[in-house]
Specification:
The complex is a heterodimer.
Chain A (H helix, E strand, L loop, with lengths): L2 E4 L10 H13 L3 E4 L8 H7 L1 H18 L7 E3 L3 H16 L1 H13 L9 E3 L1 H8 L2 H7 L8 E4 L20 H8 L3 E3 L12 H4 L1 H17 L4 E4 L2 H9 L1 H8 L7 E3 H8 L29
Parallel strand pairs in A: 1-2, 1-3, 3-4, 5-6, 5-7, 7-8
Helix pairs in contact in A: 1-13, 2-3, 3-4, 3-5, 4-5, 6-8
Chain B lengths: L2 H5 L6 E6 L11 H9 L4 E7 L5 H12 L5 E6 L2 H14 L7 E5 L11 H19 L8 E4 L4 E4 L3 H12 L4 E4 L14 E2 L4 E2 H14 L3 E4 L2 E9 L2 E8 L14 H5 L7 E2 L8 E2 L2 E2 L11 E2 L5 H5 L5 H5 L12 E7 L1 E4 L3 E3 L16 E3 H7 L20 E8 L14 H16 L2 E6 L9 H10 L3 E4 L2 E5 L11 E7 L4 E7 L1 E6 L1 E3 L3 H8 L26 E3 L9 H21 L1 E4 L4 E3 L9 H5 L5 E4 L4 E4 L9 H5 L5 E3 L4 H13 L2
Parallel strand pairs in B: 1-2, 1-3, 3-4, 6-7, 6-18, 7-10, 18-29, 20-27, 21-22, 21-27, 22-23
Antiparallel strand pairs in B: 5-30, 8-9, 11-12, 12-17, 13-14, 15-16, 19-28, 24-25, 25-26, 31-34, 32-33
Helix pairs in contact in B: 2-5, 3-4, 5-18, 6-7, 6-15, 12-13
Classes of the chains: A alpha/beta, B alpha/beta.
Chain lengths: 298, 667
């Protein structure tokens, strides 16, 4: 059984709880052992990274050191990071630590003060990467007991998963989520909005600009007749789902379309109850319920 | 008497001349310190410095010292031997010395140009000077041999550059072999409708030259052929050319094209390469009606006869001259030529590599080469510019610099795209009346009549938006935009992001080196830039020569070029080739191998591996002998000889050991 360490970051314990719930359920259903990193700390995120890179790197490095020491029992140091902001922050820190000896020296000193060390072993993995690339297609399709037939899905990746580092997919036209949705039996819509900005933290600061960006994405999904938008980032999910009513007031033709984590849709296809996927927490209800697959001869 | 004195008939007198090269060398090497250092080296009788050793007064210093008998061998510490070895050898010779009693120490390319540290630079320069001095005391006077030059010339590539060079040489009375890989000559130019900036009809100016090539008594034209091997050296190249079977006998086919009409396929079957894949052609075809030679060719990949062995073969039935031959085999031709001109051209950038422009995803996104065929009166639509559904576009966006001036694809400017984009804009507007938008980074129109053409387009109300396009999508925001392609770009002149709906997008793709440029480079033993363009000997002063004597470059294989520049360069290459073959002889570097009889054990290792069969075995004396006329100085035998009996002039073991000693023992 493959094993992974899991780094939740703050979002998956708060606004992104459905992401955590659904991801853990899906991993378990696929027989993947996933263990939360013990004593993890903040990834540094945008806030720290933009004020003091070095401190952000130190925060990340502590997580790496913990991951390496806790990975001994697992046999690999793959750290699964679902939040796109954490994924990018940790990925960036790792690259800087691995490539710039002067930064590394300072960070090593800081780690040593806490009796920790980082030895370049940790790998930062996004669950999209793990679920699409570590597993054979049959492993996924075998688990599908309720194919998402007739469900029109728009896959929305956001920016940080493939930019600036395109470790496992194309930078401009990522396709891994499309592949997974296709294997689940859904109809995948090809659209131009896959990596367009959702507004990011602008929805909380310059709200009009932020919402205009999310609105354009939602509107194009509706125009293409989609039933649901699949996401892989807690902030994207939040921006796209939670302001739909405000958009109604602001633009007069607010969209009304569910926005689910891709892991939630996987869970639905695997026949996992909605409660275990966090679907009961949705603002825009996702009421689709697929029929069980007809078993040959049955 | 020391070994050195024995070998050089007395005490050698070495002159060392250190060049400042302005500040090129003196900026990073203490020239005066180097001279003082040289004065103390063994056998050095004269050491001097001068601002520019290569200048006439500089050479005069050397000549005078040789003439006065102050020195009998010369070391110049200056630039690369590629630059001035010939200059200084001549100076020694003019002074009355033997030109091979000369050695160069490269303290510019190998020292001053590659360091910022003057102290380290000076030390390395001293080491190289010491090495040259140590080696030159063992130099022997050598004689150059003259060999006759074969007057025939090979030209590889039958685009406009190859055609022009071939005609120039053939008209001068030289025999020319023109080898082209496609079934016809004509290259890219044959596909264009008009040429910028004069809007000359491309076919009207090209096809007369094509047929002149076909008819010229001095030109042997081999199309559908490739060079597979090149041996020999300047003046005497031995080349093997593979003639691919076209399954139609070239000497019998009269070009009536009845066979194509008769083919069991009533319609096209495979993408037509000549028409950029816009339409399909049959398995038996000619690329276009003015193809030269006008001989059909059968593509075995799609021909039923080749695929199944069963076909009614109507093509054979209708062919009166009985030219079709399904059993034709590949043929290898061997020719001898004195000079070679490479005119292998370019390929266009693959637009799929920039996914965000939607080529291959949205049907109405075209490459510029496809539009060239669409606007061509002889093209698949008879010159009509139409969308995939047959309607005329009302708005067209032309995106410049696709695969050019972009760190992610190609950094360089492809030079021709601004101008051909203007040409296409004009032609599209003329044919459709559409609004045409050019998205450019900078307009680059430096050429005779080019800027005027740009001005004309501005007058014709073609739109110009300065900004690199971010993306082409089908992201429509208004109902009236349904079905359109949306171009988004930052308009850097008004400082805003623009979103322009159009019906058709044209991607002005850049020029790239041919996919097999590296194989061709190896075949002809020349160099490539990192982008794959063939490297000229000197960017300013030897733009059509290569680092291999006797091999010249013409056209876009050397770098992106438009038609006028390609033709000009082809003319220059032809002139250089002519100058070489007309002289009648070349002088060979005397770096041939020789055998030290006393050391030869007669093992025959050398005679078995010599690629030029220049070593014969003397059965009487049981030793190897080198035929100096055949030896090319490759050094293979010297490296292989187990007893050190084979040595090479200018590179004897002793010379090399002393050179190494010089590098490491003085500094």
């Amino acid at each position: 059984m493959s094993s992974y360490l899991y780094y939740p970051g703050c979002s998956l314990k708060s606004t992104g709880r459905p992401y955590e719930e659904s991801m853990l359920s899906v991993f378990r259903a696929l027989n993947l052992n996933i263990i939360e990193l013990d004593d993890w700390n903040c990834c540094g995120a945008t806030a720290y990274m933009s004020v003091s890179e070095l401190k952000a790197f130190a925060l990340c490095a502590r997580n790496f050191a913990l991951a390496e020491s806790q990975s001994d029992k697992l046999g690999n140091a793959d750290l699964v990071v679902p939040c796109a902001a954490c994924y990018l922050g940790l990925n960036k820190a790792k690259r800087y630590l691995d490539e710039y000896p002067d930064i590394r020296e300072k960070i090593d000193t800081a780690l040593a003060a806490a009796n920790l060390s980082y030895n370049n072993h940790v790998r930062i993995r996004h669950p999209l990467d793990v679920l699409c690339n570590d597993l054979k297609e049959e492993v996924l399709t075998d688990k599908v007991i309720r194919p998402l037939e007739g469900l029109k899905v728009a896959c929305y990746y956001g920016c940080q998963i493939v930019r600036p580092y395109a470790d496992f997919d194309d930078q401009h036209n990522p396709v891994v989520m499309d592949k997974i949705m296709h294997l689940l039996g859904a109809e995948v819509v090809d659209w131009a909005m896959k990596t367009r900005c959702c507004g990011g933290s602008l929805t909380g600061t310059v709200q009009e600009v932020g919402q205009r960006l999310s609105y354009a994405i939602l509107k194009d999904a509706v125009r293409r007749g989609c039933d649901v938008i699949a996401t892989a980032c807690p902030l994207c999910q939040f921006n796209l789902e939670c302001y739909q009513k405000q958009m109604q007031r602001r633009y007069g033709d607010g969209p009304n379309i569910p926005v689910a984590y891709f892991t939630q849709l996987m869970g639905v296809a695997f026949g996992i109850p909605n409660q275990q996927l966090g679907l009961h927490r949705s603002f825009v209800p996702f009421s689709y319920s697929p029929q069980p697959k007809e078993v040959a001869g049955g | 008497m020391s070994i050195v004195e024995q070998k050089s008939n007395g005490t050698p007198k070495v002159g060392v001349y250190v060049c400042h090269c302005g500040i090129n060398i003196a900026g990073k090497v203490d020239v005066y310190e180097a001279v003082e250092f040289a004065k103390k080296l063994p056998y050095v009788s004269v050491a001097k410095e001068y601002k520019f050793m290569c200048s006439d007064p500089g050479q005069e210093i050397i000549q005078e010292d040789v003439r006065q008998g102050l020195v009998d061998r010369v070391v110049v510490a200056s630039c690369s031997p590629l630059m001035h070895e010939a200059t200084f050898r001549r100076a020694v010779s003019v002074g009355g010395g033997n030109p091979f009693m000369f050695q160069m120490a490269n303290i510019r390319e190998h020292v001053s140009w590659v360091t910022l540290d003057k102290e380290a630079g000076t030390e390395k320069a001293k080491a190289l000077i010491a090495a040259a001095v140590e080696r030159i005391v063992l130099h022997q006077p050598l004689e150059q041999t003259k060999v006759p030059v074969n007057p025939d010339v090979l030209i590889v590539g039958g685009g406009i550059a190859g055609i022009h060079a071939a005609l120039t040489l053939a008209n001068a009375g030289k025999k020319v072999y023109l080898v082209e890989r496609e079934p016809t000559i004509g290259g890219h130019m044959a596909r264009f409708d008009k040429t910028f900036p004069t809007l000359d009809c491309s076919a009207c100016i090209l096809t007369p030259k094509m047929s002149a090539v076909g008819a010229h008594p001095n030109i042997t034209l081999w199309t559908y052929s490739e060079v597979v091997n090149v041996d020999g050296f300047v003046g005497n190249f031995k080349v093997r050319v593979k003639r691919k079977p076209r399954y139609v006998k070239e000497d019998l086919c009269v070009g009536c094209l009845e066979c194509i009409e008769a083919c069991v396929y009533k319609r096209g079957k495979v993408p037509d390469e000549f028409n950029a894949g816009l339409i399909k052609r049959k398995p038996i075809y000619v690329p276009f009606p003015q193809a030269t030679p006008l001989v059909a060719v059968i593509d075995p990949e799609s021909c039923v006869m080749f695929k199944t062995g069963k076909c009614k073969k109507p093509c054979v039935d209708v062919c009166e001259p009985k030219a079709i031959d399904f059993d034709q085999k590949e043929e290898i031709k061997e020719i001898n030529v004195g000079a070679i001109i490479l005119a292998t051209g370019f390929k266009t950038f693959d637009a799929r590599r920039i996914e965000r422009y939607g080529y291959g995803k949205y049907p109405n996104v075209y490459t510029s080469l496809e539009i060239e065929r669409l606007v061509n009166a002889a093209g698949p639509t008879g010159g009509e510019v139409a969308l995939k559904d047959g309607t005329k576009p009302k708005a067209v966006g032309i995106i410049h610099c696709v695969g050019s001036r972009d760190a992610k694809t190609n950094v360089y400017c492809s030079r021709v795209c601004c101008m051909y984009s203007l040409k296409l804009a004009h032609l599209i507007k003329e044919r459709t009346g559409a609004e045409v938008y050019n998205f450019y980074i900078d307009m680059r129109t430096p050429g005779k009549g080019y800027e005027e053409f740009y001005e004309r387009l501005l007058q014709e109300n073609v739109h110009f938006i300065r900004g690199r396009v971010a993306e082409v999508t089908d992201w429509v925001m208004q109902p009236e935009e349904e079905g359109k392609l949306i171009i988004r770009a930052e308009d850097t002149l008004i400082g805003t992001v623009r979103r322009i709906p159009v019906d058709m997008v044209v991607l002005s793709v850049g020029l790239e080196a041919q996919a097999d440029a590296d194989d061709v480079r190896r075949l002809f033993n020349i160099s490539c830039s990192k982008e794959g363009w063939f490297l000229e000997r000197h960017p300013k002063l030897a733009p059509v020569s290569t680092f291999t004597e006797g091999i010249f470059l013409a056209g876009a294989c050397q770098g992106p070029k438009d038609i006028p520049d390609s033709v000009a360069q082809a003319g220059a290459a032809a002139a250089e080739a002519l100058a070489l073959v007309d002289r009648g002889f070349v002088e060979l570097e005397p770096n041939t191998a020789f055998v030290i009889k006393e050391l030869c054990s007669g093992c025959k290792t050398c005679s078995n591996i010599c690629p030029y069969s220049a070593i014969v075995f003397n059965e009487e004396e049981k030793i190897a002998e080198v035929n100096g006329a055949l030896c090319k100085g490759c050094g293979t035998c010297v490296a292989a000889c187990p007893s050190g009996a084979l040595q090479q002039n200018l590179f004897t073991d002793e010379q090399i050991y002393r050179e190494i000693k010089g590098v490491i023992s003085y500094v």
